[in-house]
Structure formats: structure tokens, C-alpha cells
Amino acid sequence: MNGRDLAVEIIERVDDWQKRYARWQSDRGANATNGDIGNAYPFVKNQHAPFSPARRALPMLNLALISSAGAYIDGTNPFDTSVSAGDFTFREIPSQIEPEDLRFAARGYDPAAVMADSNSLVPLARLFEFESNGIIGQLNPVFWSFSGFIPDAARLVDEMVPKILERIKRYEVQAALLIPASRLCHQSVSLIARAVELLGIPTITIAVDKEVVESVRPPRAACYAGKLGSVAGLPNWPEHQRRVLDEALRLIEPMDQAGIRQLTVALESEVEEARGER
Question: What's the pLDDT at 271?
Fold first, then answer.
């Protein structure tokens, strides 16, 4: 499937979206810097979602992580956060990397949380814990990182998504966890999730902006009342991160159709924090 055919599958009525995007870009798109897309941005609107049922139990799956936080290895080229349409490149990073070797090109979100604790957006430590205790079969040896502030959704699908899919197939990934960082990142990761699911690979997208995921329709979304910039759990609160990730990942296997599920973790964590148990 070439980039154009893929775009038609991932963005319904893609030609109509491109017209809406061109109007927005003419009005203010060129000024969409520093993470500001404004209220008029034309989010993708899909009516349906591709869906692939899990064919193996979670403890048997090779799980891949895809993060839109703009993570890159210290000393390498960062993502370009100045381009109005977005940066259409991605990084393939060893999952065993030390947290202090990661840097973040943050656009559209406050990087304070991820700077304090990378697990709030790139939860490698938590996922290795899940591997060791048998919640997942294994964490894929590399994860994929990109800067998810990409207003031009069609170019994202045309240019970047086929390349990520090629790498996912090469690593024989069996399930994928996608974590957005900003509001616009929710659109970007949802589109990638739709593409991955078309490969027959089940996905789960963690979300804190339900409105965007309801519009873009990733195959499986796990929503909770979290915060942009720390979607995988609050920084330096491992138990909160474990609860968010555990509850979300356990949705992969039982879901038999596309949909959005609400997590209970937020309510439980608020009660604990009120009791001083954090």
C-alpha cells in the first residue's frame, strides 16, 4: 500500500480534510509555532476505525512503544520544532537506554514532567517491570519516538507512517502502546495507531483528551483525567504510572471491537493522594 492509498484508509475523506487544513493554514497555520494551533484547527474526523483482535494473550506479546514526546538521544540531532507543518522524521531508540541519555524536543506541551521523570511520557522502566513480572511477554528492543506536534496530518500519513510500519514489521511487533504528549499529539498517535492496526497488529492509545480521540478514532483508546505532558502517569509517582499502564494494556486482549474505554485509575489515585498515601 503506497502513501496515498494509506492516507485514504487512515483519514476518511482525506481530500476534504486537506481543503479544511489549507483554509486553516491560510488563516493562521503559518503562525502555529510554540505549540499554538488555536481553536480553529481542523482535527481529522473519522467515522470508523480499523480493528485487529489480539490473537495471543498479553503475557505472550512482543509489545512496542511509540511515543510522540520528541525524545532523542543526547548528542544526536533533535527534532525541528520550528517547522509550521511539523517534523516528519522519527527516531529508533534502544529500549535499554538510560533515562539520563534522553533529551526531549517538546512542542505543544510543558516538558517539566518528562524532564523530572521520563517515565511520565516514555515509561520504559515501568514496561520492563511488566516484562519481568509477566504482564507482557517482552518489551520490543527498540522504541519509536517522534515529535507529535504535526498539523499536516496527511503528510504525516504519506511520509512518515510507511517508514514506521516498515520498522514495526521488521521487528515482528505483536502489539503496540502509543502515548501522546500534547493535544495535537493525540491526533498524530491516533493516526499511527490506525495504520498499525491495518497491519493486523492490535494497539492501545492512552489519552487524556477524549474529544480528540473521539474525532480521530484510534482502534483502542484508554482515557482518563490525566494531564498533557504526563500522559503515562504523574512524574516520580511509579505506582500511578503502573496503574495507568496496567489498566490500559489489559484492554488489548478482551476488546472485540474498536472503542474508547474510561480508566478508573484517576479516581483511585486522587483518593490516595488525599489520604497522603502518594
Answer: 47
